[in-house]
Amino acid sequence: MHFMKTHHYQRLLQYVKIDGHSSVQPGNSDQYFYLKRTDGVVQIFKSALKNTWPRQLTYFEEGVDGYKASPDGKIIAAIVNFKGSEHNPIALIDATTGSWVMAVQFDGAQVGSILWKPDSSAFVFRSNHENGKDFQIYEYRLFESDIRLLVPSVGWAFPIAFSPSLGKLLYGQALSNADMNLFLWDFTSGTSEIVTPHQGQISYEAGFGRTDNELYVLSNEGSDFHKLYHWDLESGKKQPLGPSIDWELSGLEISNCGRYILYSANEEGYSSLYLIDAWLNNELPTPETKGIISAYSFTQSMDIMFCYDFPKRSSEVYLWSWAHAESKQLTWSSYQGLMPHEFVQPELIEFESFDGLKIPAFLYLPKNYKRGKSIPMILHFHGGPEAQFRPNFYKHFQYFLELGIGICAPNIRGSSGYGLHYMSLDDYKKRMDSVQDGIELARYLMDEGYTSSDQLGVMGGSYGGFMVLSLITEAPQYFAAACDVVGISNLVTFLKNTAPYRRALREAEYGPLSDEEFLKSISPIYKMDRVITPLLVVHGATDPRVPLNEAQQVVEALQARNRAVEWLYFEDEGHGIRKLENQILYYDKMFQFFSKYLLP
């Protein structure tokens, strides 16, 4: 037994320590930056196209949450992690020496959306430090080392782009996760003008073309999916661009000259990258992929740098020369002695829910699985809910599969990536329809012979945690084990206690606090007497999105009823488990928990 536990732990370490490369950004000349985990946290690295050895630039105790390199590649503005609280300072790092100073530091406030001026003399960012609720846009000037309010705002404002003349700033204001407006701030007059007055839920991605009066926009205005347009702000004319694509488009990037446009199509969860010559409205060659492309941008030489991963490979940095139609891999992840070619690729399936709606799901089956054999299976629900499970590389999935446990990850109604209508099907009073989708998936997998109720588990994080708790209270007879990670248990206390700047966006999705009776009626915490499924609860003590009390309520309610419940709280984590040492503890606990209840 001791040997088996030791073998399990060593094998687990191999999987958890698989690294990857993300958030690539070009610098000046041939240099580029990216994020990579080292010493248990995520740091910024620098490398060059001439195959020089990578250099670690940051050594912050808890790593960084994100960064933005200046256009000249000399300075990096990094958002430094602080116990997962999302109340993080901004440090300025010299890209040559690695020396740094703390430039922006507000106690108990969130900052983000860093946007550099083209001449690298200053950057703008959003912050809610004035009242903890409303995001306004501020400017930090490097030579003066000072911060000034640039755009006063109420709600969730964020900078997007400077106009070519530098006379205007394009910025957005989110009304919900599916609804926003675009504004132009005029530096001369000090006033804002709304660009997108509208009714209904519409969202936008945008940037300037050659002049201050033209925008390239991805918008779902008048459509279920986002489409690409050229907008003439003087005439109001909107001209469609690019090929006709009936999938969700996102990730708009515009070259400095305003001629070339990059964006990606989300085709059944996989990425297709599109490059458009906007002046000629021609489609140009892009790399063929079978996974997820992220963090792409134009280099100074007009090549394309991007990150790419797929179910059997971790994320790497690539360079695409579209002039020569060829790509080059720039980074190489360590697989800790594991064989990636032995990892499992999921199958995209579809099942019918209670009302006839077709729901897509990714089904991962262990190697050598034989059709008709009932095996342990775990349903995995993503967060959001306006998010999407996509077939990225999930190292813990691959370890489950090695243990003989299958995974099924659905995109139930309310998920993004399938159009505005699909994403709205779980709003407010329709919330429990999405829970019913989860129940129908459990029935489908059992009816098809993949698994049985004594072998079926469920896990999920954030909204996925709400789904876990809802399923084991609405259909407890179907599940033999469950894991709730940073999940919502009580929609009333969640909305009251979540960070003030998030409340309005969340009420737009779940319903207003004024309708407390309805929120209580769908909250799993009031149905704990129905739970018969052993439950593991995992949470971070500094979580500003879903406060720790959401987990504590569940544990206390189940303990009072003498139900099987285990928990794992991390004092230095927020909305998710990020540090390597904590991930090891979390995954070890989770694997042992599901093995105990699902494996024979």
Polypeptide structure, described:
The protein has 600 residues and is α+β, with helices and mostly antiparallel strands. Among the domains are: 107-200; 340-598, 3-Layer(aba) Sandwich (Rossmann fold), CATH 3.40.50.1820. The chain is built from ten helices and 36 strands. The protein has an eight-stranded mixed β-sheet with strand order 29-30-32-31-33-34-35-36, with helices on both faces. Helix 6 (491-497) packs antiparallel against helix 7. It is globular.
List the helices and strands and how they pair.
Layout: H1 2-16, E1 22-26, E2 31-38, E3 41-48, E4 55-56, E5 64-69, E6 75-80, E7 90-94, E8 100-104, E9 111-116, E10 122-127, E11 136-141, E12 146-151, E13 156-162, E14 168-176, E15 179-186, E16 191-194, E17 204-208, E18 214-219, E19 227-232, E20 238-240, E21 248-254, E22 260-267, E23 270-277, E24 282-284, E25 292-298, E26 304-310, E27 313-321, E28 326-329, E29 347-352, E30 358-364, E31 377-381, H2 395-402, E32 406-410, H3 420-423, H4 431-447, E33 456-461, H5 463-474, E34 481-485, H6 491-497, H7 500-510, H8 516-521, E35 535-540, H9 549-560, E36 565-570, H10 580-598
Parallel strand pairs: 31-32, 31-33, 33-34, 34-35, 35-36
Antiparallel strand pairs: 1-2, 2-3, 3-4, 5-6, 6-7, 7-8, 9-10, 10-11, 11-12, 13-14, 14-15, 15-16, 17-18, 18-19, 19-20, 21-22, 22-23, 23-24, 25-26, 26-27, 27-28, 29-30, 30-32
Helix pairs in contact: 1-10, 4-5, 6-7
